[in-house]
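Entry 14. Structure prediction run on the chain below.
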Amino acid sequence: MDNLDDIYWEEAEKAKRYKKGPARPKLIKYLDLANELADGLNKSLDNIERYLKTNGKPQHIVCAAIRAEDGDLLIGIRHYSADMILQMNARTDGKKFQHRMDDDQGFIDQDGNYYTRAEAYLIAKENGQIINPSACRDGELYSEGLY
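Output returned:
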């Protein structure tokens, strides 16, 4: 992928040098095509990775999850909902789940695979699970978007 980025920026620099003339539109067309190909490749790789992770089964987001620094998961109805708090208090190592933010607040699918809010949003959207889109912000899934 780095090579494609290098090629893109090299061609972009060439395009800047051509202020006028027939080469500039053609070069810009090729740059746009290279961008589309790179985006498509990234999406395809993401889809292949997800397919392999789930053995080809359709994915469904089933509940919220908090990931500790060591990778352990705490699952519940919503992030830091009453059921999660009860679990944290019942565990001897429950403190490791406190104050987890960003990519450590996510969701799991039906097979227990963990996904960040952004990854879970794509899965839920793809499967028509989001019934309250206004509850989701900036391409991230929030529990309220599912009900």
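The longest helix spans residues 23-53.
Filed with the rest of this week's runs.
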